[in-house]
Amino acid sequence: MTHPLLDLAPLSAAHFASIEDRVARLLSTEQDVVIMQGEALLPLEGAIRGTAGPGTTALNVITGPYGQTFGNWLRDCGAKVIDLSVPYHTAVTAARIREAFAEHPEIDFVSLVHAEAATGNTNPVAEIGEAVREQGALFYLDAVASIGAEPVLPDAWGVDLCVIGAQKAMGGPAGVSAVSVSERAWARMAANPRAPRRSYLSLLDWKERWIDGGRKALLHAPAQLEMLALEACLERIETVGLDAVMTRHRSAAAATRAGARALGGGLEPYVYEAAEAAPVATTLRAPSGVVASELVSRALETDPALPLAAGGGALAKEMIRINHYGVDATREAVEASLTALGEALAERGLDVDVEGARRAIEDAWRQPSAEV
Average pLDDT of 24-30? Predict the structure, then answer.
């Protein structure tokens, strides 16, 4: 007995290449795009290990937990790392980047997360990219959370290594990911004696055995289900339109911020400025005396499918996250999440206005560009 999810024909090299081309169109890039057979941590680590080494001086921007991970990888590669940390309730600025360059003119690599779903902030990559170009440094960008929720334009922004994943705003699978690679980044890898080769982490293997060979022979058997799911995800975005998908995420973010403020009970946006808040997820600060993780657990008892989570690590005490991305970038998901939080706050004797929050959500959804 055949099964549509099990008895699959092998994915051809031509089919694989066509999916890479669709990713390139999504990114509006002329750079090489490599789809890697694993979650986005695979190309994120592979890109750093391919381009960084003992001669590298890296400016590592930390606006959330992934920036800390990148710094660890860079140090493990032997790079000199200059960490630029900013509070999680805000974003880094191009001025801060330029200040770091002035203090450390030897910087030749910059690592940055575009949108931090874990902390709810987003960074002004276009402005930062201009500063990085002035320095002549290689620019590495984690756009896993931002792709599909806000513009991601590696060519226009001067990004040399742009990593994306489909599992958040794109509403696709987690088991495959992609990276666009500039000619400068390929040259840096080729000159790096420590760049992984004959390894699952190796981007050079894909360059030499796949791209340079005209994309005729795959390195190994691709993950068919994940590749087909990625293709379906890209087709859905192409059909609906990327602008429409991004608008839906902006609407969800604006409605969440407005609804949280109207709800009351001491709940407020964690990221102070709307312009610095990521459209992929909104973080909220729990009221004084309320443990965020306990509040989220109580809210999820009403509906375990709600896109709610507490902050990670030490942030579990104070941060609540509403993950309004992908299929949850809807007014209904935002309303249900804030309603559940409101009911959990009311149980603790806090004064909340659930109906007021619903009205604010509805009003904000009609005006996605408004700052709230």
Answer: 98
Residues of the chain with CATH 3.40.640.10: 13-240
Q: Cβ neighbours of residue 128 under 8 Å, at least 6 residues apart?
A: 92, 94, 97, 110, 112
Q: Is 330 exposed, middle or buried (0-12, 13-18, 19+ CB in 10 A)?
A: middle
Question: Is 117 buried (19+), middle (13-18) or exposed (0-12) by CB count in 10 A?
Answer: buried
Q: What is the DSSP string of 206-235?
A: HIIIIITTTS-S-SS---HHHHHHHHHHHH
Portions of the chain given CATH number 3.90.1150.10: 242-365
With CA atoms as reference, report the closest residue to 286 among 205, 348, 369.
348
CATH number, domain 242-365, options 3.90.1150.10, 1.10.3720.10, 3.30.70.330, 3.40.50.1240: 3.90.1150.10
Q: Are 308 and 300 in contact (CB under 8 A)?
A: yes
Q: Is the pTM of this model over 0.90?
A: yes
Residue-wise over 141-156: b if at least 16 C-beta within 10 A, else e?
bbbbbbbbbbbbbbee
Neighbouring C-alpha atoms within 13 Å toward the C-beta of 312? 9
Type of residue at 247: T
**Burial class (CB within 10 angstroms; exposed 0-12, middle 13-18, buried 19+) of 237:** buried
Phi, psi of 122 (to 5 degrees): -140, 145
Q: Which residues contact 372 (CB under 8 A, 6 or more apart)?
A: 254, 257, 258, 261, 274, 364
d(Cα 35, Cα 337) in Å, to the nearest integer? 34
CATH number of 13-240: 3.40.640.10
Rg of the Cα atoms in the chain: 21
Confidence bin at 234 (pLDDT 50/70/90):
very high
